[in-house]
Design brief:
Blueprint: H1 2-9, E1 15-19, E2 24-27, E3 33-36, E4 39-43, H2 49-61, E5 72-73, E6 78-79
């Protein structure tokens, strides 16, 4: 996951992370608490959709919760959001 965070924090990538101000804390298996820091990943960049699928899978594997995912192919003017809905956490 660190490779993705480093990539999206770099000024050369059109997809950028915007960190939100308020973290939440949840108990973890070791008896402590894990901090969850909300962020938005947005922008315009020519990337392979398989790469974006892998990014979201990696984030989820490290405990991330995806609350919204929208993807658009601007060259083909095609909405690809439906194929990314599988990662969005439904409200409980």
């Amino acid at each position: 996951m660190n490779k993705h965070l480093g990539h999206f924090n770099a000024p050369l990538c059109g997809l950028q992370i915007t960190w939100k101000p308020k973290a939440t804390y949840r108990p973890n298996a070791e008896g402590g608490q894990t901090a969850y820091h909300p962020f938005t990943l947005a922008g315009v960049e020519a990337v392979n959709t398989a790469y974006l699928h892998n990014v979201l899978k990696d984030f989820i594997a490290f405990g991330a919760e995806i609350h919204q995912a929208e993807v658009q192919d601007i060259e083909a003017n095609e909405d690809l959001t439906a194929s990314f809905r599988q990662y969005v956490k439904r409200p409980t």
